[in-house]
Amino acid sequence: MSVLKGYRVLDFGRYIAGPYCAALLGDMGADVIRIEKVSGGEDRWLSPIAPDGTGAGHMNLSRNKRGMTLNPRKPQGQEVLRRLVSTADIVVANLPRKGLAAMGIDFQALRSIKKDIILTTADGYGDAGPNADQLGFDGVGQAMAGAATLTGPEGRPTRAYVTYVDFGTATLGAFATMAAVLHKERTGEGQHVKANLLHTAVSFNSPVLTEQAVAQRDRTSTHNQGQTSGPTDIIETTTGWIIVQVVGTPLFHRLAEVINEPGWVTDERFLTDDLRGRNHELLAPTLAGWASTMTSEEALSALAAGGVPAAPVLRAAGTLVDPHIVATNMLSPMTYPGVVGTVPVVRAPFTMSSAEVGDVRRAPTLGEHTHELLIELGYSEADIAELRSDRVV
Question: I need a surface site. Which of 109, 125, 237, 272 has the fewest CB within 10 A?
């Protein structure tokens, strides 16, 4: 049985932090209802891959959800909203506080409908401090947490393409929501769970920040080379690129044996992780030279035999056909209306030994389950026709 079977989640999220949080709850068996504007949420149309304009992000982040359209700013929409909330256990939204209030999904409004509701929200900066009312995206967190100055070529602060701050905030929000569910089961009390992008980014970069406060290292980017251990680098072979990542003295000794550099083991410049990080420029050319005469397959085979962490650097097309990713079914093929062939959608990024993790169901088309859900809420066919005519749904 799935952990959240029987729980209902209303997903008012947009872009990543809210929708992915709700998707994770759906992976754990919750009945997640994705609620969009009548014209569709902005995030639905990013990176379009379907004839109706639906994008790749929506395909993944709205997996395991039913889809409904609703305009809660209209009086009839507020009535639909109240009925929905009365059936729900959790509401997820990543909207500014003013937006939550305008839609009637701020915590006070939700509690007036259902006292034990759990509201999970995510925003850019949190609800205190001078930036509290500013909007924020993933890159804001990366920049302000000191991460962008440690990424990319030296002297050119670089935002990571993968939006790890958004996905991290969503994951932490889902984690805290599960804790809120446990608290509710113990006490009967709902609560407001809050996450924000900047706090996530600061948390992820906290070792660097703590080091700076105490040791004033003033680190700057060394591109792909490691700084606190080593050698870690992305290096070129005759057929492509691979990453080698060495942390800890045992792994360093293994690498020295694989590339036939026994002198590294006793060299006083390389005796600790900190020293190897400080002297990375002395290690990097030797490692790069070793790999430069081999194919990626040959280099990776030698490193694997020696127990050294390494992997190929893949483009997206390579990731889709990588033998390990294919063998472990990380991506689940499914159909989507109008798309020729199948769409690979990521499965839940975890498993549980004593509970089911739901199979992936495709993302809904715009408003696909609106009629079904309104019937569940007690609306008649005539009522539904009127709501559609008035553009409430």
Answer: 272
